[in-house]
Amino acid sequence: METSAGFWLLAVLLLVGFTQAQTVEKYFRVGETLQLSPQPVSERIYSVVWKYGKYLLAEWVKDQIPLTYYSKFKGRTTVNTGTGVLEIRNMTAADNEVYTVEINNHVQSRAVRIREVPQPEVTVRPPMCGSSLENCTLSCDGDVKEAEPVEYFWKIGDGEWEQSGKIMEIINSEETQCVKMFSCRMKNPVSERRSESITNPSLDRSTASCGNTIKTCWLSGRKA
């Protein structure tokens, strides 16, 4: 997986009220502090329980259970028993999970993780695409249902990565017939992966010379 040491993570805070729900997206970097704030309650708070996935992260019950932190969150976590606000310092990629809080024994809000992007694969359409066709399309495919928002990038031959849409249309020309390889890359706030390079389906191997530099490949990207 291609990623930097300081890549972004995403927490989605879903505040659940009696009549409507409001979703708030929060991005944070590895090493920074994450703060999740439950919706304020009208009554005095007498118990707060935070969970990490299905495991206890912290809990407090007035006059029964002192404020207690569990597992890897010990020493870097603070819960405000007056508001229920959770603060986790020195966040790591491994902390990217589903967080749930119970205020006064009621599930009041939850933070939902974003999944890593899948391994992308470049699909050629039509499958019999070749230099004899006027145009073909390349699709950067993968199941991104739970990995949104996803950005797409394409690499044309030896060129630089350029952001585009999921679908890349190849307009057949002398320039495009000289491009040997294509590859795509998917990226979201927590991860990025690139596909295997594929041979240009429009490559004209009979071309004697393609020149030293290809300035324009006459490609257009669009969303699926």
Automatic annotation (TrEMBL):
InterPro entries: CD2/SLAM_rcpt, Ig-like_dom_sf, Ig-like_fold. Residues 1-21 form the signal peptide. SUPFAM superfamilies: Immunoglobulin (SSF48726). GO terms for cellular component: membrane. The keyword Membrane applies. Keywords: Glycoprotein, Membrane, Signal. It is found in: Membrane. PANTHER family: CD48 ANTIGEN-LIKE (PTHR12080:SF125), SIGNALING LYMPHOCYTIC ACTIVATION MOLECULE (PTHR12080). This is Ig-like domain-containing protein.
